[in-house]
Amino acid sequence: MADKQNTNHSPNNTQDNAVENVPDNSSSGTTHFGYSEVPINEKRNRVRGVFESVARNYDLMNDLMSGGIHRLWKTSLIDWLNPRAGEAHLDVAGGTGDIALRIIDQVGRDLAGPVTVCDLTPDMMLVGRDRAIDQGIVQGISWTCGNAESLPFPDRSMNSYTIAFGLRNVTHIDKALSEARRVLKPGGRFFCLEFSQVVLPVLSEIYDQYSFKILPAMGQLIANDRESYQYLAESIRRFPPQDDLIRMMTTAGFEQCSYRNYTGGVAAIHCGWRI
């Protein structure tokens, strides 16, 4: 169940089982990588390095980090999306296939429209493709290596765009939002599931202690990678709060924007329409 809903109204080349090179559209200057400042043209490779490191343990760590609650959040995302037969869905930063496969299961394997996974990290997509094959899903899903800031898909080609726990890793969130709107058909919807700003004071303090002490230690113990999980904790804190993201979505041209908090704001789902 969502804790709260807030609404704000605003005034191709995919390849099945293939990996494409991502064009470098970097610019000068610096940006944040967790709590560190790095050259803009280095962040993308650093982010890819994090997810190359954690790819094989990514889903296990999500279960351990959230106590399995991330599964409920994702179920809520799919329920709100309510995918239908024949619709074209794009899941960005969805390398392990968790959201894409849920969409296919929800609609039905024989009825699901084309579902495309786009991710910056080939190693993550290898995990997702293996998972899909293990479930006997080899048709109706494609995998493309690409950058959320410069998507390799035509204008107005998708009925929905989802991104779960990926937007905070993008260098220029405004560019990613503009790209999301570009590839959506009129009437298409954007959904972002992301860790967000906790709205309960007591929970906030507990969550801070967990994020910066327990989470990196857990990463070291389970995945032998403390540094990557330290970055993930820091990246959560650098992500825009709920209302700020609504304003960014509105600036990007989305309308009827809203969000729902989950688990006291530990996570939130944002939705916007391309009208």
UniProtKB/TrEMBL annotation:
It is an enzyme of class 2 (transferase). It catalyses: a 2-demethylmenaquinol + S-adenosyl-L-methionine = a menaquinol + S-adenosyl-L-homocysteine + H(+); a 2-methoxy-6-(all-trans-polyprenyl)benzene-1,4-diol + S-adenosyl-L-methionine = a 5-methoxy-2-methyl-3-(all-trans-polyprenyl)benzene-1,4-diol + S-adenosyl-L-homocysteine + H(+). InterPro entries: SAM-dependent_MTases_sf, UbiE/COQ5_MeTrFase, UbiE/COQ5_MeTrFase_CS. It holds the Pfam family Ubie_methyltran. Keywords: Menaquinone biosynthesis, Methyltransferase, S-adenosyl-L-methionine, Transferase, Ubiquinone biosynthesis. GO terms for biological process: methylation. The keyword Methyltransferase applies. Residues 1-38 are annotated as: Disordered. Its EC number is 2.1.1.163, 2.1.1.201. One of its GO terms (molecular function) is demethylmenaquinone methyltransferase activity. The keyword Transferase applies. Residues 1-33 have a biased composition (Polar residues). PROSITE patterns: SAM_MT_UBIE, UBIE_1, UBIE_2. S-adenosyl-L-methionine binds at residues 96, 119, 147-148. Pathway: Quinol/quinone metabolism; menaquinone biosynthesis; menaquinol from 1,4-dihydroxy-2-naphthoate: step 2/2; Cofactor biosynthesis; ubiquinone biosynthesis. Methyltransferase required for the conversion of demethylmenaquinol (DMKH2) to menaquinol (MKH2) and the conversion of 2-polyprenyl-6-methoxy-1,4-benzoquinol (DDMQH2) to 2-polyprenyl-3-methyl-6-methoxy-1,4-benzoquinol (DMQH2). Belongs to the class I-like SAM-binding methyltransferase superfamily. MenG/UbiE family. This is Ubiquinone/menaquinone biosynthesis C-methyltransferase UbiE. It comes from Kiloniella laminariae.
